[in-house]
Design a protein that fits this description.
The chain is α/β, with parallel strands linked by helices and about 525 residues long. The protein is built from 23 helices and 5 strands.
Length: about 525
């Protein structure tokens, strides 16, 4: 900020509080809409987009919905709406969602990803009834978190987490014990906060396993034995869990046999660098197979996990778009193990029927599907074959699907979609002017992150399911935050619609808002 002020030269006078909060902010909002939003609209018109709604409650118990628009170029923050008075009304939620779609353009929106609460479900169905070409789906990441939470209710998982909680609560409640633990674990903590209660529980289990040697050394040390804590009943119970309960450590490993494969899927769908729609169908199937292998094919061990996955998958995630995206992904379609069974083909044709209302267009798409399946036209070229596993599916279709124009347009729209309302830090802010501040800051940061990904060539490589990491970063993902943790830069209490009026004093003007935004960056 100081460099920007200095570059302006002598005579610079900063903007008044009124100018910064009204005049300049409004100008920057309009600039973002003109420059950034228009650029995204070109892509939305060409290949479609996903409308994402992400709800949260602020400190005043108001329920806020953030609306964002996702496409391969990036995610655009649209606006925040206070829905406290309508959150339980499906009719009102439908009207809100419908108005946002109208704002974006019905032909531009392929799908809406929203919450899975009953009011949202009904609103989504009403939306599809009105907008015949539109899909709505619950957030895949939320669904997977519910699967993981359901698994956490299985007795061995629940008992293991309960014991782990006893250990951590006891250690962190007594400062002397906590200091002794840190000495033996070389400063490493046991509690690992995650995005959800379930996440925190399993990250802490993993941390206990990593620090097993240090914890056993601590409770076996002379310092512990000589302390008063070792002679009290509570301390003795915790010590026995760590030193004498061999089942506790075995149970941790047992639990992770079912958790890690699902965590890979969660990391896949909860990222926004690359569209995941073409991968989720296969990823869930692979996760189930891996869980069965982890339990050595013993049905009584893996079947309860499969039942939980199948129940959530059938109710929330097993949708036509997912099946169609799987069928049209060249990485899987040309794999010798590919099997287009009934459910996949039904999902494919339901998607075609919905997205291609013209009978003539459907007929063309059906013929072109045969060319794709039989590797005819450009699909059979050496370069197309070589790039099946090296290029993002939507980009592969843009390169080699030109001989099947109708199918190419349809497929690019499908394979460019996301699956989740990405778990960015929510904007716990006042409405109106704060929404404008978020609009500017959020979109500038999203644009900067997209440019960084282009420079690092992150948009080219396709997703490799076998390479997804399974360590504990799956929930506390190390990513660039869209907004900073500290929101004090937006502590504004008045509403944005306040009349501007005129400054009482004339001053030499410059691009003050750019200077302010340089400071924010």
């Amino acid at each position: 900020m100081l460099e920007s002020v200095a570059s302006f030269g002598p005579g610079f006078k900063p903007p008044s509080y009124h100018e910064a909060r009204c005049t300049l902010l409004k100008k920057e909002v309009e600039a973002i809409k003109t420059d950034l939003l228009e650029k995204y609209k070109v892509e939305w018109k060409k290949i479609g987009c996903t409308l994402m709604s992400n709800g949260w409650s602020d400190g005043k118990s108001r329920f806020i919905i953030n609306f964002l628009i996702n496409s391969p170029t990036g995610t655009m923050f649209l606006k925040s709406v206070d829905t406290s008075e309508i959150i339980k009304s499906a009719d009102n939620l439908f009207l809100l969602l419908d108005s946002v779609i109208e704002e974006i353009g019905e032909d531009n929106v392929v799908q809406v990803v929203i919450d899975s609460a009953s009011a949202y479900v009904k609103a989504g169905e009403m939306l599809m009834a009105k907008r015949k070409k539109l899909f709505w789906y619950p957030c895949a990441a939320h669904c997977l978190n519910l699967i993981l939470s359901d698994i956490g209710d299985i007795s061995i998982h629940k008992d293991t987490i309960c014991k782990a909680r006893k250990v951590t609560v006891y250690i962190y409640r007594h400062s002397w014990v906590l200091n002794l633990m840190r000495t033996h674990t070389k400063g490493r903590e046991l509690i690992r906060p995650g995005a959800t209660r379930f996440a925190t529980s399993y990250l802490t289990l993993n941390s206990l396993e990593e620090n097993k040697i240090g914890l056993r050394a601590m409770f076996g040390s002379e310092e512990w034995q000589r302390s008063n804590y070792s002679r009290k009943a509570e301390g003795e119970k915790v010590m026995n869990i760590i030193l004498a309960d061999s089942e506790f450590w075995a149970a941790i490993k047992y639990c992770f046999k079912s958790i890690v494969p699902l965590v890979k899927v969660l990391r896949l769908v909860d990222g926004d660098a690359k569209p995941a729609m073409g991968y989720i169908f296969e990823a869930v199937g692979r996760a189930k197979d891996q869980i069965a292998r982890n339990y050595n094919g013993i049905q009584k061990h893996y079947k309860p996990i499969w039942d939980i996955i199948d129940e959530r998958w059938a109710l929330q995630l097993h949708r036509p778009l997912h099946a169609a995206a799987y069928y049209l992904n060249p990485k899987f379609h040309y794999n010798p193990e590919f099997n287009a069974y009934y459910e996949i083909k039904r999902g494919l044709y339901e998607t075609i029927q919905k997205m291609c209302p013209s009978p003539l267009e459907r007929k063309s798409v059906n013929k072109q599907l045969d060319l794709f399946h039989n590797t005819e036209s450009m699909f059979g070229m050496d370069m197309a074959i070589q790039m099946r596993n090296k290029k993002q599916p939507s980009l592969w279709w843009e390169s080699f699907g030109g001989g099947c124009k109708e199918l190419q347009n349809l497929t690019v729209r499908i394979l460019s979609l996301t699956c989740s309302t990405h778990s960015k830090r929510r904007n716990r802010l006042e409405q109106q002017r704060l929404s404008a501040l978020v609009f500017v800051k959020y979109n500038l940061q999203l644009e900067a992150r997209h440019k960084k990904r282009i420079l690092e060539n992150e948009l080219y490589d396709p997703i490799c399911l076998s390479d997804l990491e399974s360590d504990d970063e799956w929930i506390i993902e190390k990513e660039d935050l869209v907004l900073p943790k500290d929101h004090t830069w937006m502590n504004v209490n008045e509403c944005f619609e306040v009349e501007e009026g005129e400054s009482s004093k004339k001053r030499k003007r410059g691009n003050y808002f750019n200077i302010l935004m340089n400071f924010f960056n």
